[in-house]
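step=encode ok
step=design start
structure_in=
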């Protein structure tokens, strides 16, 4: 099965528009030919998102790494100018002020203080010690799949469930609250403008999630344990966090802590299903799994674009004058397929040895949950390959539906078939 970039690159127009639109089904299905053209034209471009907001997008690996470590660029939304705020900062009040002051939107020294509160929970040695428990969870999800189904949706059956179960275990979310979490609440990070017909439903989801977070805080305050959530509540009660910072950090954990792993499972499995020889080799040589997961994240990262960064004053960025308060975003996917850094970058190479990718970012905002995500992906991919022999797509690849998220990549469903199902597979379209 050929890489989609091979099929579509020749039809791309030679001149890039200004700004470059970053939306639409074809773009979400395969953004890589466009990213290649942007890299060739220069390291930074003005781009347009479906909400109407424009930004400056950095594409090459070297430029991306420098941008992510550039101390001139801050993440706090207060740095955004009026043009950005009008179209991009659209979460309504009071929720914006109460839920958007988490780690992703903070700069040192506040960022340093807040990050210190979560690092122990995601420390490599701690999460590695939980690997056997994660394996039990993954096996239980496969065991729950119905043997009489002729196809299964791996998103509904596995990818949308496993990361949340792991997260709940790691952060100390008690079972009675974990059972009530709705995956739909994660959609509140997708921009829905004030004039959008979906705005009322968006605001309803936002209020529901905020109410759920309040329940989590009350529960952990009333029955404290030794998990991360209890420690964050204690930090609030001890004056280390404001109420808004506490709620925002729980918001970030519940949304950013699981949905990207769900999406990364789908992009990894799609890549392996496109390359049955690599899938067969990985199934036969499970010792390759850690290196394979790194290559799969490089090839198609679930975090396609970073969140916003801003300059405090007009400045030069990679040879382009960028106004203060304009949003700057880095394409992690484009950086990870830069041929200057990764030879033959569109190829899935399980033996690749060119060094680290940028799927978890770089600099002070490097993902604090990277070690956990790596273990989750190793367990998830390893379990699916070992437990589902003959694994293959159940629909033509062009029928896969890619999520329309602005910053993320993944499939909404992943219908597969296999030769010898475990005792029980969520049929496609049913949960």
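sequence_out=
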């Amino acid at each position: 099965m050929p890489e989609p970039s091979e099929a579509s690159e020749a039809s791309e127009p030679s001149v890039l528009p200004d700004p470059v639109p970053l939306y639409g089904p074809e773009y979400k299905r395969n953004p890589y030919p466009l990213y290649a053209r942007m890299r060739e034209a220069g390291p930074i471009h003005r781009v347009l998102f479906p909400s109407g907001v424009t930004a400056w997008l950095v594409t090459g690996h070297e430029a991306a790494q420098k941008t992510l470590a550039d101390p001139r660029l801050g993440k706090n939304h207060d740095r955004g100018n009026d043009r950005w705020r009008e179209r991009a900062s659209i979460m309504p009040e009071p929720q914006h002020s109460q839920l958007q002051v988490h780690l992703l939107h903070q700069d040192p020294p506040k960022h340093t203080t807040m990050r210190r509160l979560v690092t122990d929970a995601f420390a490599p040695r701690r999460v590695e010690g939980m690997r056997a428990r994660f394996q039990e969870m993954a096996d239980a999800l496969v065991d729950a799949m119905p043997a009489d189904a002729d196809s299964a949706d791996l998103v509904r059956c596995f990818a949308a469930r496993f990361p949340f179960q792991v997260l709940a275990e790691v952060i100390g979310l008690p079972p009675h609250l974990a059972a009530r979490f709705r995956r739909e609440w994660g959609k509140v990070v997708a921009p829905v403008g004030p004039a959008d017909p979906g705005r009322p439903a968006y605001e309803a989801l936002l209020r529901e999630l905020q109410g759920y977070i309040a329940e989590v805080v009350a529960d952990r305050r009333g029955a404290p344990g030794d998990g991360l959530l209890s420690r964050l509540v204690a930090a609030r009660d001890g004056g280390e966090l404001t109420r808004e910072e506490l709620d925002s950090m729980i918001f970030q954990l519940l949304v950013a802590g699981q949905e990207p792993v769900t999406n990364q499972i789908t992009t990894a499995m799609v890549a392996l299903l496109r390359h049955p020889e690599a899938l067969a080799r990985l199934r036969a040589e499970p010792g390759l799994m850690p290196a394979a997961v790194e290559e799969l994240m490089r090839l198609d990262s679930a975090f396609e674009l970073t969140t916003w960064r801003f300059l405090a004053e007009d400045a030069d960025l990679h040879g382009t004058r960028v106004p203060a308060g304009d949003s700057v975003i880095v394409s992690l996917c484009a950086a990870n397929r830069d041929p200057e850094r990764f030879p033959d970058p569109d190829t899935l190479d399980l033996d690749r040895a060119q060094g680290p990718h940028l799927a978890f970012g770089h600099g002070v905002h490097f993902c604090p949950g990277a070690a956990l995500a790596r273990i989750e992906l190793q367990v998830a991919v390893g379990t699916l390959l070992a437990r589902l022999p003959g694994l293959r797509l159940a629909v033509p690849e062009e029928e896969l539906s890619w999520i329309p998220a602005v910053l993320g990549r993944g499939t909404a469903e992943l219908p597969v078939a296999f030769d010898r199902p475990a005792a029980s597979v969520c049929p496609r379209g049913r949960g």
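step=design ok
step=annotate ok -> The longest strand covers residues 44-48.
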